[in-house]
User: Fold these one by one.
Assistant:
Number 1:
Amino acid sequence: MKYAAVNNFINGQFVKAQGSRTLDVISPIDGNHLSSVPMSTAMDLNKAVNAAKVAFPGWSRTPIKERVQVFFRYKYLLEKNLKELSELVQEENGKTYGEAVAEIEKSIELSEFATSLPQLVTGEVLEVSKGVECRTEHVPLGVVASIVPFNFPSMVPNWTIPNAIALGNCMIIKPSEKVPLSVGRLASLLKEAGLPDGVFNVVHGDVEIVEAICDHPGIEAVSFVGSTKVAKLVYQRSTHNFKRCLALGGAKNHLMVLPDAIPGMTAQNVAASMSGCAGQRCMAASAMVAVGKVDHIIEKICEEARKIVPGKNLGAVINQQSKDRIERFITEAEKDGAKILVDGRKTVVQGKEKGTYVGPTVIDFVKPTMSVATEEIFGPVISIMRTNTVDEALAIENANPYGNAASVFTQSGGAARYIIDNASAGMIGVNVGVPVPREPFSFGGWNESKFGVGDITGKSSIEFWTKLKKSTTKWNPEAGINWMS
Ligand code: NAD
């Protein structure tokens, strides 16, 4: 084992979990045994909630301008340790080093946003009647939880950690059991940045701990990022227990390519979107709708896809199970009559034979009913469907139950606006393959890609991580009593 066994982080200390069950942490790059991760029990969660509860009064009463000083220092520590943090993300997740660096840079941007929260959470005050003032304040919720997926071991945790904590909450995070190492490093950096003990806690585990989080009476709010199947379970279970919940799910993002699209730029964007992070992004282009005569662009997409080399500029997928699943999708499409233009099946990287790689795959003449058109594949695969009109393309996009992102490639402002207005997705790109809104704009999809109100990042996250207190004050006895007194 390259690293020591992973521990929970409770009340500012790394502590052994009580549960005896563990899982191996394996690098998708080469099958190297990195560590082992404990499957904590409800007792471990209890300890973390108790520590967070004890820390909450002190932390929530610390003025926000003081609280965000921790995140100025945390941002600096992320910058200072960028190389080491990126290498760890690369090793446990399998993405390329450049993609891992981008993930840490995004984590830095997320901390930077949190430091601006004092400017954004000012309440309101108004004299609503003679001498009577109403005032609103954003008040932290208490102990909150964040449950995260494997595909961004640092960025997705940082979607929630800086904002929730800067806004005065204490947090329990449950990392993905597939990539548990990065969050441990984040915990050390938060401590080094001066975060008081108990404000941030890490409890490792799987289903048992997720269910315990949803059920725990000491936890006020649960944020979840992962597949739609689990997002629904977490949303139902935590709201059933009267908790606030925001659960982000899976995706099937459509790119609509119109005949007037700029061929080179479009092909580069499509290829980068479908293959970046080995297609394991909830914002990845997974389906493309070719509108009219765009064969010349499809040819260029294949040229671009062939430049993407597994083990070089394409990372590994998370594990063998995932590789097998992706390859099954491709084989099924082929059997159903689709044409495989670029085939990434049976990829082996020399010297990394135990790595789990799938090469870039372009599938043409896909029917909207095939599984490669309807399901989230989560691999470097693009399924191309053909239509004659923009409305037919939109009908395909709208029929999909997900709604994270959609993009259009065109030079026509009118066509682009029509697609922005009519696509059924929360985040839309125009000539942009991965339309992630950057701070201060918020991140969040629609339909089966998100359950709950508001978005997880940016200004919108303030509503999720705080509750509003409204006070009405009168200091002038001479004002007398009126209808609103
Ligand atoms: P996942 O749903 O399998 O796991 C997410 C978390 O839930 C993990 O911490 C895991 O331990 C836990 N979990 C897994 N199965 C569970 C169960 N049956 N009951 C309770 N908890 C369970 O997701 P993943 O495979 O880690 O991540 C990939 C998925 O996440 C994709 O669907 C991707 O689209 C989605 N994702 C969505 C967004 C978004 O913003 N919408 C962002 C990143 C990833």
Note: Residues 147-151, 156, 174, 176-177, 206-207, 210, 225-227, 230, 233, 248-251, 282, 376, 378, 404, 445, 449 surround nicotinamide-adenine-dinucleotide (CB under 6 Å).
Number 2:
Amino acid sequence: MCGIVGYIGSRDVSTTLIAGLRLLEYRGYDSAGIAVAATGGEISMRKRAGRLANLEGVVGELPAGSVAGIAHTRWATHGAPTDLNAHPHMDEHGDIAIIHNGIIENFAELQRELLAGGHTLSSDVDTEVIAHLVEDAYQGDIRAAVAAVLPRLRGQWALVVMHRKEPGRIIAARREAPLAVGIGDGEQFLASDPVAILEHTNKIVFLRDGDLADLQRGGVTFYDAAGELLTPTIETITWDGAAARKEGYDHFMRKEMDEQPRALSAAMMGRVSSNGIAIGELDAITPALAAARAIEIVACGSAYYASLTAASLAERLLQLPVRVTVASEFRYDPPPLSSASLVIAVSQSGETADTLGAVRIAKSAGATVLAIVNAAGSSLTREADAVVLLQAGTEISVAATKSYTSQALVTMLVSLDLARRAGKLSAAEVRDWSAELLTIPAMASAALDASDALPDIARKYFGAKGFTFVSRGAGLATALEGALKLKELAYIHAEGIAAGEMKHGPISLLGADHPVVAVVLQSPVLPKLVSNLMESRARSAPVIAVLSGVGEWASFATDAVVIPAARHEIAALIATIPLQRFAYEMALLAGADIDQPKNLAKSVTVE
Ligand code: AGP
């Protein structure tokens, strides 16, 4: 949700931290702050509400010659996004500076205790209690003080802490919120996402739940939850610098949309060929796949809709119940789970708190967990029994685009490979699927070209009261995703709905000022969908249609974007591309911040 960076070493501390924050700003951007420690120990801090640029404007006021520092970009949970509530937080003496991602669930109880003990708390933020607890626990060793406080906290945290009396030291700890240490030569780094530090070091240690790291310039010492010394696993991460640059585009979103043909091709690399489909990563869980009697897919937001695209295909092919559930519901109201359950968790970041929560529930019930994830090295990749990476490359824009189409595709590939392994697809059927799958990147390019009609369509309907996105079958997931894109990017109310449900209520909304956006694919339910669209036209609602192989059926459309003809599951995936562009163009017209929509964050690491 929020972003953390830390640094100890001889570079300019503020410059290094701000550069790291720039790479993390997409993860949370309602306020930002920095604290640096001078050789003599004094801790100086600056915090500003709003975008990182506001903090950058005052960071020059910090003293030069610092030896260590921590910095943060925030997505507010407790307390409004103000200067005061921005991190870092300090105790009343200015001795301790602390940054925290996550939520301290028992903060109110701890706050009462601290106030009764004579402490003065100055912000509305849960994090501040930790600074005061560490102050009370401190007896000359900041690591010991932090270790003593952690058992008192309930909730989730990635924490970084500095003490005025120990300027060359940063303590880091994590529980259910990501935090990584970057190992340098005579310098050490910290980040909630390694992307912030990879240009300096690619030697990364991902802290595990309960781990604590003691960073000093000459090296880092790691401890486990029991306080025992730990030998860390140092991973070497490949740095895709280009992914973090706009490379001539005005927005990351537009760049990432255009990257879809390449991302979709990468998703199939080594998995789909003219001879068939085989996902080697599934071999590790072969016995569990054979034993599976039900498949539960868990995900959030766009990842949830992407999973829906292939769910009924999987059910049809495997002849097993396949259910897709929003992870935040699944984790507190799980279906019956056992060792005969295969749980597939789908996520771009691999750090979504609800998805991780659902996975832990599934694992504790004995289920096998397969992760379909973009971010290599993320928490989800470490917790799952098997991992299929999307290979879409880093996605910076908060709105999921290339990760969405890649998630839909990889979920489809997994479904097909499960069916192949179970002997439920003949060799000829597999070859037919492969041949069509391999045309997906070209179809995505054609859909990008067709999307050039969208700026005019967006201008025509900008100002409408709202939009209803409809479809039936596999296209329904696309309609739901199209509505989500329009809401999150252009702040325009939109609803995605099964077209057959229109007559049960939502049709009342329709009129000349409330268009329908329809995903119309070649499928057995096409005539039914067309009837629903004619009903919409009869209520004066314009119908903006994304059409795949529909031909003479298209007379209902007031505006049409034609994409290549394909099986409806594949066409559903391709049809997302014009809807992404529609939302993008509407957001431009609305003057919205496209890459960082208000109130959102790229990776939702709190419940
Ligand atoms: C969509 O544009 C959003 N960024 C959001 O719905 C996202 O898909 C959701 O938060 C899940 O994220 P994940 O894929 O990283 O788990």
Note: Residues 300-303, 347-349, 352, 355, 398-400, 488, 603-604 surround 2-deoxy-2-amino glucitol-6-phosphate (CB under 6 Å).
